[in-house]
Amino acid sequence: xxxxxxxxxxxxxxxxSLKRTHDMFVSDHAKSIAQxxxxxxxxxxxxxxxxYNAVLHMPVLKEGDRVxxxxxxxxxxxxxxxxxxxxxxxxxxxxxxxxxxGVALTADTKLHxxxxxxxxxxxxxxxxxxxxxxDVSRTAASVGDIHRHxxxxxRSHPQSTAVSLLEGGGTRNxxxxxxxxxxxxxxxxxxxKLFRVISGHLGWVRSIxxxxxxxxxxxxxxxxxxxIWDLASGKLKLSLTGHISTVRGVAxxxxxxxxxxxxEDKQVKCWDLEYNKVIRHYHGxxxxxxxxxxxxxxxxLVTCSRDSTARVWDIRSKANVHTLTGHTNTVATVRCQxxxxxxxxxxxxxxxxxxxxxxxxxRATLTNHKKSVRTLxxxxxxxxxxxxxxxxxxxxxxxxxxFIQNLSGHNAxxxxxxxxxxxxxxxGADNGTIHMWDWRTGYNFQRIHAAVQPxxxxxxxxxxxxMFDNSESRLITAEADKTIKVYKEDDTATEESHPVNxxxxxxxxxxx
Length: 512
Description:
Layout: H1 10-25, H2 37-52, E1 60-63, E2 66-69, E3 79-81, E4 90-92, H3 117-126, H4 131-148, H5 152-156, H6 158-178, E5 192-199, E6 205-210, E7 216-221, E8 225-230, E9 236-241, E10 247-252, E11 258-263, E12 268-272, E13 277-281, E14 289-294, E15 300-305, E16 309-314, E17 320-325, E18 331-336, E19 343-347, E20 352-356, E21 361-366, E22 373-378, E23 384-389, E24 393-397, E25 402-407, E26 414-419, E27 424-429, E28 434-438, E29 444-448, E30 463-468, E31 474-479, E32 483-489
Antiparallel strand pairs: 1-2, 3-4, 5-32, 6-7, 7-8, 8-9, 10-11, 11-12, 12-13, 14-15, 15-16, 16-17, 18-19, 19-20, 20-21, 22-23, 23-24, 24-25, 26-27, 27-28, 28-29, 30-31, 31-32
């Protein structure tokens, strides 16, 4: 039999709740515990011995009635007795060495009295604001200069030469310090225009790869086929079937007549283009394989998957050389390069990882992005790369992944990035927009939103992949309206007809 629940008035319940809240917050858990004097003294003794043992024996300076401890920077400086003073108080010269190499100490230079506090204050008030900073850099520069220019001139005129060297060092450093920060003006790039639309796929076109000879290119689609197209004419040359789900990645080898493909059916296939047949399968991924890339110098294939791993395969033996684990969500994109780090991955866990291929471990993890990283692009000439996400496009420096700058303004889910040798970065988004950027300055010089194929819905406007051909004169995009679009530079455009409308945005730049 269920017990009757005792009913209370609202007034009683409110007061009980207030009491519980009071009990919860009455003790300040963030407040530090009262300091134990004995423990604090012991800690300070240990710290003094550990950190300052080298300077504890330094002499004590007496000036007038004040006694102050000498700074630790005086360690190693020679100390001299002040005549007429008590011998236990030593004066340590602020200049530990004579005015020039090989110059003996004189009665004037070996004795040095520290200025009084009043004198220091009056001197500090008289100095211009940047003088102290100049003095620091001047002294640092002059020591090296004295060592470099050691010779007869210094020996004959030690004091004047030292002064001139000091002044030289100070001038050089102060001019460097005074240089105002400037933003480089973006380079002019001709705008791009739509050149050709190629139809033939029956589903979303998800991936593109251009053959090293620049005669044809390959596309993989959601219709489960791989199609090979003539680059010059845009005509279909060949269709390959074999995948049982969307083909998410294709790559053409520049070392052998092989084409590699991966898809949402967990399969990674190697096609021999002399026979147009699958000759190898690479088994191991536990879920859809989203991207594929070939190492430029060794026979290694890298794939990444929805199972949160990237796998490194030996092309010939089909062996799974490494399984790169560490990401906590789908690995959406992978790129390989000959230099370290040889493998770079971007993931839906919003991180980018740089991998050590030999050890099969992470070299660095870049956590700056706030949203999924769906694409990476390596600069063909510089030791840099870019990553695309819904929050920003970011540029990074190899080998450690040092952040360079943000490219903001493409407010959509960035599916693909491509960059050419002229410093044109292309970003393609889920809403069908393409933005063109100047790589060095991050200036957005063009925005394109091509019309969808007749008969398609406007919502089918989306860019899944884009790539420059090997001549870098054509830009090929794979789109959600089942077409492949080819863009080329506008030959008629000039700097006068399409001027650079650029304003420096120093304040708007984010530091992360």
